[in-house]
Amino acid sequence: MNDTPDLELLRCYAETGAEEAFAELVKRHVDLVWAAAWRVSGDRELARDVSQTVFTDLARKAKKLPGGTVLPGWLYRAACYAAAMHIRGEARRAQREQQAMRQDQLQQADASEARAAAELQPVLDAALADLTETDRDAVVLRFLAGRSLAEVGATLGTNEDAAQKRVSRALEKLREAFRKRGVTVSGGIVAAALGVAGAQAAPVGLAGVIATASLAGVGTAAWGTFSVFTLMKSKLAPGIVGGVVVATTLAWQQRSITRLADENAGLRQQASPTPAPSAEPADADIAELARLRGEHSELLRLRGEVSRLRQSGPSGADALSRRLQSAEARASQAEAEAALVVAMQKSEAYTASVINAGKNLGLAARIFATDHKDRLPTTFDEMRNEMNLRPDGTFSGGISPDQFEFFPHERVISEQEPEMILFREKAARQLPDGTWQRIYCLADGSVQTRHSADGDFSQIEREGTGTAANGPKKP
After folding, report:
1. Can you list the pairs that 130-136 forms with residues at least 24 positions away whose Cβ atoms lie under 8 Å?
2. Cα(first)–Cα(last) distance of the chain, in Å?
3. Which of 5, 6, 91, 301 could potentially form a cystine with 247 if both were Cys, beta carbons 3.0 to 4.6 Å apart?
4. Please, are residues 28 and 238 in contact by the beta-carbon 8 Å criterion?
5. Could you tell me which of 445, 444, 438, 443 has the C-alpha nearest to residue 460?
6. Half-sphere exposure of 416 toward its Cβ, with a 13 Å CA cutoff?
7. Neighbour count for residue 185 (Cβ, 10 Å)
8. CB under 8 Å to 154, separation ≥6 — which residues?
9. Contact between residue 1 and residue 43 where contact means Cβ atoms under 8 Å apart
10. Sign of the C-alpha dihedral, residues 97, 100, 101, 102?
11. What is the Cα–Cα distance from 442 to 365, expressed in whole angstroms?
12. DSSP conformation letters of 416-450
């Protein structure tokens, strides 16, 4: 299978669902994708998320890719676009300052080729974005994917000599792209910079994790409703490519503000986060509150009439008092209903944050297991390096790992038992409507939200407990 062309492997997976074919593609190209995302973002953890997103999207779109697609070039562009989407906002605010810093640093760089090649890494992908698709495919194949000139020619539908000329022209265009950014370098240094980029390897074990999670994520949104494939075909693509120029520099030189994977709801991003609903009242709730205020105004008017009519006779005052009591009851009910709506929205926002934290923990556990011969962690300290925590030790939304606990089992469980509970919220929560809720993370990294009318989750937990009687099925 190692000699099978990329598109044949992709077609094999698309037509037969052969997971080993897709795993081979991930193994073959994960270094290229991870390195591109890392250069754009400057964040190793975010690069892992982007790699997961790109390969999940590839699995979902396997049947739709045109027959002549150059897969390394497609994966490279997808990785750049996805990483740029994460960091464009921060980059825009610091554009001018960071461009000045970049130019100053490059002008002061050491004259040696190795040093110069390293200095070009932060702006390499921005320069590549200036090339035409065919020229960029040639460079990606030759330097980032490590293909021979003969292989480049065969992939592009030409011969080795034509491939050599195209690569040479593309390198010259890269030099021009650097010159436009105030960086004058030789063709040799450009080639050396591409060589450095092509030598960057993804973390050990990442290919296996991505292959498994990507296939599990087929049919679900890899990034909310965002699709890398759709983005690449849209008219927004040129603007996003341009954003890479700014985003790259900021991410490289300001590492302290680029842990954005935690501030973009998907994580790792191999599994997809749940968007948190707004805690602010919706338009319908605002209208309801306006109606409530109208009821109160009516109450004030009626109270005035009661005071006036009490002086004119008991019958008129009694009738108006009944109207007043009815209006007060309606206003009280409307106020209670509006308060419940707002309370439920806040509760849902908090629940979404807990779910996202659970997904982070589940992914961290899967990564830990991959790096430790399929052994699942038993404490949060064991997998702390795999967690995507903010500097204050919490996940996005302020959720701490301490709000979860490892689920007790009678025996050791494994990844081959996806229905077993790995973590759970320490305590069930009562919602504003009176029902109870608890978040569970299973051994396969998935997250489940379970509800109970009376706060009793014992039946649910019995089904997810590893006992001597329900040991894992042998293959």
Report:
1. 130/173, 130/174, 130/177, 130/180, 131/170, 131/173, 131/174, 131/177, 133/73, 134/166, 135/166, 135/169, 135/170, 135/173, 136/73, 136/76, 136/77, 136/170
2. 24
3. 91
4. no
5. 438
6. 10
7. 20
8. none
9. no
10. positive
11. 10
12. T-TTSEEEEESS-EE-TTS-EEEEEEETTS-EEEE
Tokens, residue 315: 């019958």
Structure tokens at 254: 């300001």
* Residues ≥6 apart with Cβ < 8 Å to 85: 226, 231, 240
Using DSSP's 3-state secondary structure scheme, residue 288 falls into helix
Element (H, E) at 333: helix 314-371
Rounded Cα–Cα distance for residues 136 and 253 (Å): 26
Of 97, 87, 85, 76, the closest CA to residue 43 belongs to: 87
pTM: 0.36
Distance of CA 299 to the CA centre of its chain: 51
DSSP E strands in 166-231: the ranges are 222-225
Amino acid sitting at position 112: S
Q: Which residue, among 128, 256, 148, has the nearest Cα to 197 in the 3D structure?
A: 128
DSSP assignments along 57-81, one per residue: HHHHTTTTS-TT--HHHHHHHHHHH
β-strand pairing of 421-425 with 436-442? antiparallel
376-409: pLDDT as tens digits:
998 999 998 888 888 888 988 889 999 999 999 9
Contacts of residue 272, defined as CB under 8 A and 6 or more positions apart, other chains included, come to 217, 220, 221, 222, 223, 224, 266, 359
Residues 268, 257: Cα–Cα separation, whole Å: 18
Task: Assign 244 a pLDDT band (cuts: 50, 70, 90).
Answer: very low
- Number of C-beta neighbours around residue 468 at 10 A: 7
Half-sphere exposure of 31 (CA within 13 A, CB side): 16
Decide: 13 and 59 in contact? Cβ < 8 Å.
Answer: yes
